[in-house]
Design a protein that fits this description.
By secondary structure, the protein is α+β, with helices and mostly antiparallel strands. It has helices spanning 11-29, 39-52, 106-120, 135-140, and strands at residues 2-5, 56-63, 66-77, 88-97, 123-127. Helix 1 (11-29) crosses helix 2 (39-52). The chain is globular and about 50 Å long.
Length: 157
């Protein structure tokens, strides 16, 4: 397994993985992510988004030349404070592994790599909003829910 940063040649494959992940959520949670959506238009829009939003680091796990898992990380710079060493906090989002590769430790290996990478960048905290089915996986991988995040919902999307 190769762990690496995604590049522009991966954008179509990542868009298709995101579509499949959204379709799974439609089934699992009764969401309507793909209802009335056009797959080709979504893929083109997703690719354009990735081309114009470089604030995301996209980590992928690849086997046999195929991306089997992907995780997106957005670094948020911390304001300096006296005696402060941490430079960032990070938001982990759009975590998905192709269904046929789940349960093989690939996502865990990718996340471990990401956590080590972020630690080297002096990142203090990595946070995520896990789905119901992924809470135990996040917990097994060092995430806890000790800190409450105050949320202000701005849209019902």
């Amino acid at each position: 397994m190769l762990i690496r940063f995604a590049d522009k040649n991966d954008y179509t494959e990542l868009a298709l993985m995101k579509w499949e992940h959204a379709a799974e959520d439609d089934i699992e949670y009764g969401e309507k992510n793909t209802v009335g959506a056009d797959k080709e238009s979504f893929v083109a829009g997703f690719e354009e988004f990735l081309q114009t939003h470089d604030e995301y680091m996209i980590f992928v796990a690849e086997e046999g030349g195929i991306i089997v898992s992907a995780m997106f990380v957005c670094l948020i710079p911390k304001l300096p404070k006296p005696n402060g060493q941490a430079k960032y906090i990070a938001y982990l989002t759009n975590v998905f592994t192709k269904s046929e590769f789940r349960g093989k430790g690939i996502g865990t290996k990718l996340l471990t790599y990401i956590k080590e990478y972020l630690t080297d960048l002096k990142c203090e905290l990595l946070f995520a909003w896990p789905s119901e089915r992924s809470v135990s996986w996040y917990s097994r991988n060092g995430f806890c829910q000790e800190n409450d995040i105050a949320e202000c919902l701005l849209t019902d999307e």
